[in-house]
Amino acid sequence: MMKLVLAADTAANAFENGSTGASAEHGEDLARIGDMAKMFGVTLRTLRFYEDKGLLNPKREGTTRLYTRRDRARLRLILLGRKVGFTLRDVKHMIDLYDPKGPNTKQLKVVLDKSEKQMGRLLKQREALDEAIDDLTKAMDTARKALASRQPVAANG
Q1: Does the first or last residue of the chain, that is N or C, have fewer Cβ atoms within 10 Å of its Cβ?
Q2: Considering the domain boundaries, does residue 128 fall inside one?
Q3: Could you tell me the CATH number of the domain that includes residue 56?
Q4: Which portions of this protein are annotated as coiled-coil regions (predicted)?
Q5: At how many degrees (to 10) do helices 33-40 and 69-83 cross?
Q6: Can you tell me the distance from the alpha carbon of 52 to that of 33, in angstroms, rounded to the nearest whole number?
Q7: How far, in Å, are 109, 133, 137, 148 from residue 5 at the CA level?
Q8: Are 69 and 13 in contact (CB under 8 A)?
Q9: pLDDT digit string (tens) for 129-138?
Q10: Is 18 part of a structural domain of the chain?
Q11: 47: which residues sit within 8 A by CB, 6+ positions away?
């Protein structure tokens, strides 16, 4: 997440397939809400929700939402953060600390701290899942053996 957060604006400039033919005054590639939803595999409602929460800030032409490269970069970071289990509040906090003109030392420290804590939580969840899988496997083996002992053996011939 840290590398992506620092590279948000740079990555946005390299985003391929982002153009929808709409362009801003300075030739910036813009994407409409439906295009954004398709690009990222999210619903329109999700994009509106992220906008309501201040995570995305699309430009407006009348009632049409137009997403910039920056919005696309932010959405990638939002989705990554959600994938690894961060809250939207944490994601917003980490993204909002980004300063394209600064060293981003505070952002790096926050990202690292939150990431280390989340890694600990994920490792505990993995341990619990491994234990549950082992328990379920044993229960299934027991059930198979019990079922096999109750079925008649087919006669040859």
Answers
A1: C
A2: no
A3: 1.10.1660.10
A4: 112-146
A5: 40
A6: 14
A7: 12, 35, 40, 56
A8: yes
A9: 999 999 999 9
A10: yes
A11: 33, 36, 37, 56, 65, 67, 75
Q: What's the CA gap between 143 and 147, in Å, rounded? A: 6
Rounded to whole angstroms, how far apart are CA atoms 87 and 85?
6
Tokens 């993204």: give the residue: 95
Sequence-distant (≥ 6) Cβ neighbours of residue 14 within 8 angstroms: none
Residue 29 pairs in a beta bridge with 23
Q: At what angle do helices 88-96 and 105-150 cross, to 10 degrees?
A: 150
What is the extent of the structural domain holding 95?
2-117
pLDDT tens digits along 53-99:
999 999 999 999 999 999 999 999 999 999 999 999 999 999 999 99
